[in-house]
Design brief:
Blueprint (H helix, E strand, L loop, with lengths): L15 E7 L3 H12 L4 E7 L2 H10 L4 E5 L3 H11 L7 E5 L5 H9 L4 E3 L4 H41 L3 E6 L2 E5 L1 H6 L19 H15 L7 E7 L5 E13 L2 E9 L4 H13 L9 H13 L5 E9 L2 H27 L5 E6 L2 E8 L2 H16 L3 E3 L2 E3 L3 E7 L5 H17 L5 E3 L2 H24 L3 E10 L6 E10 L5 E2 L1 H11 L2 H19 L6 E6 L2 H4 L4 H12 L6 E6 H6 L1 H14 L2 E7 L5 H8 L3 E4 L1 H5 L5 H16 L3 E4 L8 H7 L3 E2 L18
Parallel strand pairs: 1-2, 1-3, 3-4, 4-5, 16-17, 19-21, 21-22, 22-23, 23-24, 24-25, 25-26
Antiparallel strand pairs: 6-7, 6-10, 8-9, 9-10, 11-13, 11-16, 12-13, 14-15, 18-19, 18-26, 19-20
Helix pairs in contact: 10-11, 13-14, 15-17
Length: 696
């Protein structure tokens, strides 16, 4: 089996890989650069000569991999110790085929994460794969840890600033108390109480009762919602107190959150807690949950008022956050919230809905009234400067408005959100009112844009074919490739098929693209000459082409013109299309047979009627759906499912192809099920040339 590499895990995560290399020359350097090119991502390689130049490079750019030669173990060990930073997110690897076990252990012990044997391409590939996966995991952990630490800090600050006396008890010990709690029981600061047994604060008369509550909770029973006990303060004086108790169970850890208040103040405390539950901690506005409750309640009982929903989104907030940091960007949100509080009436429900998004529910006279109010908000935000240290920060917002008439809460939010997106796409600092026709018009506008892009790409030669080999698991002769269409933007950047294929289907251009693919694939076959007649090309057909009765006559003329035999082409159709278009499929199948071309069912096994479809069509190849292949090794039912599909193929004298084979783990299972061919990145990624070595 040739070299393969699973690059799918990096899609959308590491679009660029930065590599820093030291002291690699000759063939080893060429081998490493060649291997790095196969990763499927943009790879930038830089070199360094000593620690000083390495640190300069690391200070200027974020690197993913540092690769050192181990020809001089002592020098490499010193370099690793000087470059290894526990908090860094890059990996240090050793490139050598001569490191013995003792020296390898030494290098690993000082910070190297792996050894690259550049004489073994497979080992090098999979070592790099592992390191890049680990790198992503470490970066994700660092991000989550930072978020957790920030959340924990905010929680502590919130509890510490609360007017209520709050304590957390875990395993009978005081884990945390705020200053109000400490002062309530006669201590100066909360830290004076941490780590003390909670029962030490309970007066003798109530201690046994409190102990029973703690013991019952440790056995899994729920604690009472509140208790009246006497607290024994620092001076030994017992003070009657009411205590609200809330339980928290997280995995194996259990704790109690206690809130103290003086007797007969229940109503005041309940009001405070209710308000706290409804508020966003940062801005003091209503939070998302409370706003959704009010929105649903208003929709159910609007009374005689007309309501508008505002969706207010801060423009380019991500860039602002990157520039100011979390603390600075939070200050911006706080001041915008204060502006909203001043501009909107107290009776309006205004919330911090999510991140940099605010929502408001307004009783308005009419649509014109709501737009005027929204414009006042835009004007106020645009002209308000936030002072952060020595900087004066200004920003703007985009507002989407939706009237509640007859809508559900979900639909109203979606409509307002879409309107805000349109406002932002138009440059921001503006108001867009949701009109039901706008969605349809936006789709039409997008379709016109894609139609123009596709027409220009065809005219300017920015479409190309790439070929992915389909390899026999049982030594069957012949070379098989699938021809795949790729598109480039005017700047030369790749446009994913998942973008332009659905667009072409909506604009009615897929039939033209199919013919472009067929003609260019046949032309490429003709250019290879008669010596390459053992090549078979698989070509996908869209539903538009299947229903086009002129396709097969046109195909016949193209084959004759280029003197290519129809037997060299296999046309793929999606199994699901056949369920409701059997008449068109049978006509296509008949036409292809006359030309000598074969038929393949793509995504075979996706529908419950796979066997019935194959019985009617008698396709030559069945391409097993990739989701079934992806479940191998995780789901025992996948093997049985593939065996069933393979049995259908055997019964109808056809052959099976396993799609999306990404690693070696499933090969043995596929071979045992009787699958005939495999296709995927494990075999080879699509390439502009048909140059795969089928004899390897």
């Amino acid at each position: 089996m040739p070299d393969g590499f699973d690059v799918g895990f990096m899609a959308g995560k590491l679009n660029r890989i930065n590599v820093l290399i030291h002291d690699l020359v000759g063939e080893h350097k060429k081998t490493l650069e060649s291997v790095l090119e196969t990763l499927g991502n943009q790879v930038n390689v830089s070199s360094f000569s000593d620690v000083e130049s390495a640190n300069d490079a690391l200070n200027q750019k974020t690197y993913d991999l540092i690769i050192l030669s181990a020809d001089d173990v002592k020098q490499s060990s010193n370099l690793i110790q000087q470059l290894h930073r526990p908090e860094s997110s890059y990996s240090i690897l050793i490139a050598s085929n001569q490191v013995d076990a003792v020296n390898a252990a030494k290098l690993l012990s000082v910070g190297a994460r792996g050894i690259l044997d550049l004489d073994n391409r497979d080992i090098t590939l999979y070592t790099l794969q592992r390191e890049l996966k680990d790198l992503l995991t470490r970066r994700k952990y660092q991000k989550l840890k930072l978020a957790y630490d920030e959340l924990d800090q905010r929680f502590c600050e919130m509890v510490e600033s609360s007017r209520d006396a709050i304590a957390c008890v875990q395993d009978g010990m005081l884990l945390f108390t705020n200053s109000n709690f400490a002062q309530r029981v006669g201590y100066e600061q909360g830290k004076d109480l941490r780590g003390l047994p909670f029962l030490d604060l309970i007066a003798d008369a109530d201690r046994s009762r409190m102990q029973e509550v703690l013991q019952a909770y440790s056995r899994g029973e729920s604690p009472p919602a509140n208790m009246e006990v006497q607290i024994k303060g620092a001076r030994g004086v017992a003070v009657p107190i009411e205590m609200d108790i809330k339980s928290n169970r997280s995995g194996e850890k259990t704790s109690l959150l206690l809130t103290l208040h003086r007797p007969n103040s229940n109503q005041e405390l309940e009001n405070k807690l209710r308000m706290l539950k409804s508020q966003d901690l940062l801005t003091g506005l209503f939070n998302r949950q409370y706003f959704l409750e009010r929105l649903k309640s208003t929709i159910t009982n609007p009374g005689d008022k007309t309501y508008a929903l505002f969706y207010v989104e801060v423009d380019d907030f991500k860039e602002l956050k990157n520039r100011l940091g979390i603390a600075g960007s939070d200050m911006v949100l706080v001041e915008i919230a204060e502006l909203l509080r001043k501009l909107l009436q107290v009776t309006h429900y205004t919330s911090r809905y999510d991140g940099s998004v605010f929502t408001a529910l307004l009783a308005v006279d009419d649509k014109k009234d709501s737009v005027q109010t929204a414009r006042r908000i835009c004007h106020a935000v645009k002209n308000h400067a936030v002072r952060i240290e020595s900087q004066s920060i200004t920003t703007s917002c985009s507002i989407g408005i939706c009237m509640l008439d007859g809508l559900t809460a979900k639909d109203a939010l979606n409509h307002a959100h879409k309107a805000a997106d349109q406002a932002h796409a138009g440059g921001g600092n503006q108001v867009k009112f949701h009109i039901p026709m706008d969605d349809e018009l936006a789709d039409q506008d997008l379709q016109r844009q894609w139609q123009q892009k596709i027409e220009q790409a065809l005219a300017q030669g920015r479409f190309q074919l790439v070929y992915q080999p389909i390899v026999s698991l049982h030594g069957q002769s012949g070379e098989k490739y699938e021809a795949l269409l790729r598109m480039q933007s005017q700047d030369g950047d790749p446009i994913a098929p998942a973008q332009f294929i659905p667009a072409a289907e909506k604009t009615g251009q897929m039939a033209s693209l199919d013919r472009w693919v067929i003609e260019h694939a046949i032309t490429n076959l003709a250019q290879k000459g008669s010596s390459e007649q053992n090549i078979t090309l698989f070509i996908k057909l869209s539903s538009a082409s299947i229903e086009d009765i002129s396709l097969t006559p046109w195909l016949s003329r193209i084959l004759k013109h280029h003197q290519i035999k129809g037997q060299q082409l296999v046309f793929e159709v999606v199994e699901e299309f056949c369920l409701t278009n059997m008449k068109s499929m049978k006509a296509l199948s008949t036409g292809l047979k006359k030309l000598g071309s074969a038929l393949a069912l793509d995504h075979f096994g996706r529908t419950p009627k796979s066997a019935a479809i194959q019985k009617h069509l008698q396709a030559n190849y069945l391409k097993i759906d990739g989701t079934i292949i992806g479940q191998l090794g995780m789901n025992g039912d996948a093997v049985d499912r593939i065996k069933t599909l393979n049995a259908i193929a055997t019964a109808t004298d056809s052959q099976t192809i396993a799609q999306f084979v990404e690693d070696a783990n499933c090969l043995a299972q596929l071979w045992q099920t009787g699958v005939n061919y495999i296709q995927g990145y494990f075999v080879q990624e699509p390439d502009a040339l048909m140059s795969y070595d089928f004899n390897d």
